[in-house]
Write a structure and sequence with these properties.
The strands form three sheets. The chain has a six-stranded mixed sheet, with helices on both faces. α2 runs parallel beside α4. Helix content is 27%, strand content 35%. The longest helix has 18 residues. The structure holds adenosine-5'-triphosphate (ATP). The site of adenosine-5'-triphosphate has 13 residues, from β1 and α1.
Length: 284
C-alpha cells in the first residue's frame, strides 16, 4: 500500500496554487492520472520520485519515503520513471541502457523478449524509432523491480498505431510484473484500456477518483453520441453548407442550413452529437 498525504505551494498560471494530495494506492493498481494542463500532475510524479521537495508524508508498505523534513533519496526509493522524451543514454546500446540500472542479465533478456526488442539489443538508441526507444525506456524503468512505476505521458509523441501497440505491451508487462503504476494520460481510450482507476486533478487537487467507467463514460448507456472536435472549414454548396469537423483522427461532414452556418466559425471547438438512432458495429 502506498500512502500519499502531501502538500506544496506551486506557482500556477493564475498565481499561487496549493498542491494537496491525499490518496492511498493498493499494490498492483494501474492508475491513470488525468487533468488539465498545469493541474499539478507532473509535479506530483516528481515529488513521488523524490525529484522535488514537498511537505507531508509518503509511505510505501512499511518504508517511509517522506516524513516532514526526512526524505528518502531518489536512489533508495525503488522508482521506475518513464518520460515522454525517452531520456535514454545515447552512448550506450539498448542492452547497456538496461544493465546500467541493474546487472541482472536474465531480467534484461526477459524484458527485451517481452517487448520484442531482443534483435535490437546491441543497437544504439539514436538508430531506433520513437516506439522502439520508448519500449527501451519502459524496460529500463522495470530493471530495478520498482515498487512504483511512474510514466509521464509516455506515448504522446507516438503515432496512433504505435501508441496502440505500446499500450498492449504496457498491459502485458503489467500482467507479468504487477508493478504498481501511475501513468499521466489524457486519452480516454488509452485510460480505459490500461487503468483500473482514474484520478482527475484540477488546480492541485484530486477532483475525481473512480474506475474508468465511472469517470469516463458520461452517457451512462443512453446511446447518445457526443464527440468534441474543431471546425476546419465551412463550405457553401448549392443550397446548403457543409462543416468539416476534425474529431480525433477523423474528418466528419455535417450539413448546416444558412442560419446555422452563420453561427459557427472556422477554428471553433464544437460538440458533434446525435441522438435517437441505433448505432451499429461492423468489422474493419
Ligand atoms: N517547483 C515548483 N515550484 C513552484 N511551482 C511549480 C514548481 N513546479 C511546477 N510548478 C508550477 O505548478 C503548476 C503545475 O505544473 P505541472 O507541470 O505539475 O502541471 P501538469 O498538470 O503536469 O501540466 P501538463 O499537463 O501541462 O504537463 C505549473 O503552473 C508550474 O509552473
Amino acid at each position: 500500500m502506498i500512502k500519499i498525504d502531501i502538500s506544496k505551494q506551486l506557482h500556477g498560471s493564475n498565481g499561487l496554487m496549493d498542491l494537496d494530495i491525499n490518496a492511498d494506492i493498493k499494490q498492483g493498481e494501474f492508475i491513470a492520472l488525468s487533468g488539465l494542463s498545469g493541474s499539478g500532475k507532473t509535479t506530483l510524479l516528481r515529488i513521488l520520485a523524490g525529484l522535488e521537495e514537498a511537505s507531508g508524508k509518503i509511505s510505501v508498505d512499511k518504508e517511509v519515503w517522506l516524513d516532514g523534513k526526512n526524505s528518502l533519496s531518489i536512489q533508495k526509493r525503488q522508482i521506475g520513471f518513464v518520460f515522454q522524451d525517452y531520456a535514454l543514454f545515447n552512448n550506450m546500446s539498448v542492452e547497456q541502457n538496461l544493465l546500467y540500472v541493474n546487472k541482472d542479465k536474465k531480467l534484461a533478456n526477459k524484458l527485451l523478449e517481452l517487448t520484442e526488442l531482443k534483435q535490437l539489443a546491441k543497437r544504439m538508441p539514436n538508430t531506433l524509432s520513437g516506439g522502439q526507444k520508448q519500449r527501451v525506456s519502459l524496460c529500463r524503468a522495470l530493471m530495478n523491480s520498482p515498487k512504483l512505476l511512474l510514466m509521464d505521458e509516455p506515448l504522446s509523441a507516438l503515432d496512433p498505431n504505435m501508441r496502440m501497440k505500446l499500450q498492449n505491451e504496457i498491459l502485458n508487462l503489467h500482467k507479468e510484473f504487477k508493478t504498481t503504476t501511475i501513468m499521466v494520460s489524457h486519452e480516454p481510450s488509452e485510460i480505459y484500456r490500461l487503468a483500473n482507476r482514474v484520478l482527475v486533478m484540477k488546480q492541485g487537487k484530486i477532483i475525481q477518483d473512480g474506475n474508468p467507467t465511472e469517470v469516463l463514460l458520461k452517457t451512462s448507456g443512453s446511446q447518445k453520441f457526443s464527440f468534441e472536435g474543431e471546425i476546419l472549414d465551412i463550405i457553401k454548396t448549392d443550397v446548403i453548407y457543409i462543416a468539416i469537423i476534425s474529431i480525433g483522427q477523423q474528418l466528419v461532414e455535417i450539413v448546416l442550413c444558412e442560419d446555422e452556418a452563420k453561427e459557427y466559425k472556422v477554428g471553433e471547438k464544437v460538440r458533434v452529437g446525435t441522438k435517437a438512432f441505433a448505432p451499429t458495429l461492423s468489422k474493419i
